[in-house]
């Protein structure tokens, strides 16, 4: 292993095979490791870890173990420790999948929650609400919360 210590406290290590490079940024207390396949891993002092893949994808693991994936096309996916998954689409809409089987879709026009029993509740941007039950019953409320149907 070749180790170079710089005047600012940074340390660069090159492994014997010359393929893996480790750079420690002293001021930021951050380690940057580069692998032969192009994978780069950054480890921060707060235990956040970022993986930068050769295809442009990034995976960030936060100290609370939440994992955020950033895709090259602009999509995002966050996986929380409780199993909740949030996916942000290219159009800005969000799909949230909860660990209890419920699912939410957020768009500029509405927010919709889908329940495991098939019930769907939609709240539109103007405040109008619609609930569709598995029995076929539909309840519609106006913006003030008054039942219309």
Summarize the structure.
By secondary structure, the protein is mostly beta strands.
Shape: rod-shaped
Percentage beta strand: over 45%
Helices, by number, come to: 0
The total of beta strands comes to: 16
Class derived from helix and strand content: mainly beta
Low-confidence stretches: none
- Major beta sheet, strand line-up: 1-2-3-4-5-6-7-8-9-10-11-12-13-14-15-16
- How does the major sheet shape up? 16 strands, antiparallel
Q: Report the C-alpha radius of gyration, rounded.
A: 24 Å
Distance between the termini: 75 Å
Average pLDDT, all residues: 93
Topology order in helix (H) and strand (E) letters = EEEEEEEEEEEEEEEE
């Amino acid at each position: 292993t070749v180790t170079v210590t710089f005047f600012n406290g940074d340390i660069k290590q090159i492994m014997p095979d010359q393929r893996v490079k480790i750079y420690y940024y002293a001021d930021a207390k951050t380690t940057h490791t580069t692998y032969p396949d192009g994978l780069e891993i950054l480890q921060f002092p707060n235990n956040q870890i970022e993986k930068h893949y050769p295809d442009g994808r990034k995976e960030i693991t936060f100290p609370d173990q939440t994992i955020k994936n950033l895709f090259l096309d602009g999509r995002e996916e966050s996986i929380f420790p409780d199993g909740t998954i949030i996916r942000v689409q290219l159009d800005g809409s969000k799909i949230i999948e909860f660990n209890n089987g419920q699912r939410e879709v957020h768009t500029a026009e509405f927010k919709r929650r889908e329940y495991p029993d098939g019930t769907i509740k939609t709240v539109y941007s103007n405040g109008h609400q619609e609930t569709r039950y598995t029995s076929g019953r539909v309840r519609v409320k106006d913006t003030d919360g008054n039942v219309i149907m």
